[in-house]
Write a structure and sequence with these properties.
Layout lengths: L1 E6 L2 E6 L6 H8 L18 E4 L2 E4 L12 E3 L1 H4 L3 H12 L9 H14 L5 H7 L10 H14 L5
Parallel strand pairs: 1-5
Antiparallel strand pairs: 1-2, 3-4, 3-5
Helix pairs in contact: 3-6
């Protein structure tokens, strides 16, 4: 089956089985390695992408379900001013160590900030509750998202 969608702002098509995981299509067919497979069960957030602006876990999303939608991965998102604000804030607050989970946290942060530009620490914790980090801990990540929301005035 041919599946057509917008990927990081460009129209694409892929001929594949519609139940194939979006994660595999992004990594194998489009060479987008920013989406990671951590758990393969939708539990860790490492595979997070935006589908029509909503947070989606690509390891449990069949590629057929993105027909006609817009998919944004970390590779596409990092071309934005919003990404630069989050990158600076994560760096300043020590929110990154090994980096494996970072793309998923950045995508989860964008999903939150696009709906709630000035979130409380509890709203941030709730928004990232589907993401796991084994190295950094969550306080730096929460502070990073809070800092981005305060310093990214007018972006979200």
């Amino acid at each position: 089956m041919e599946i057509n969608f917008i990927l990081n702002g460009k129209g694409v098509k892929v001929k594949t089985h519609p139940l194939r995981r979006l994660l595999d299509v992004l990594r194998e067919d489009f060479d987008l390695s920013g989406v990671k497979e951590g758990c393969g069960e939708g539990e860790c957030g490492a595979c997070a992408v935006l589908v029509d602006g909503e947070l989606a876990l690509s390891c449990i999303t069949p590629v057929g379900s993105v027909e006609g939608t817009s998919v944004v991965t970390i590779e596409g998102y990092r071309e934005t001013a919003k990404y630069r604000a989050l990158e600076e804030a994560f760096s300043a607050t020590g929110a990154v160590q090994c980096g494996f989970c970072t793309p998923g946290f950045i995508i989860a942060a964008e999903s939150l900030l696009s709906k709630t530009p000035r979130p409380t620490p509890n709203e941030i914790r709730e928004a990232i509750s589907g993401n796991l980090c084994r190295c950094t801990g969550y306080s730096g990540i929460v502070e990073g998202i809070k800092r981005a929301s305060e310093r990214g005035e007018g972006l979200w």
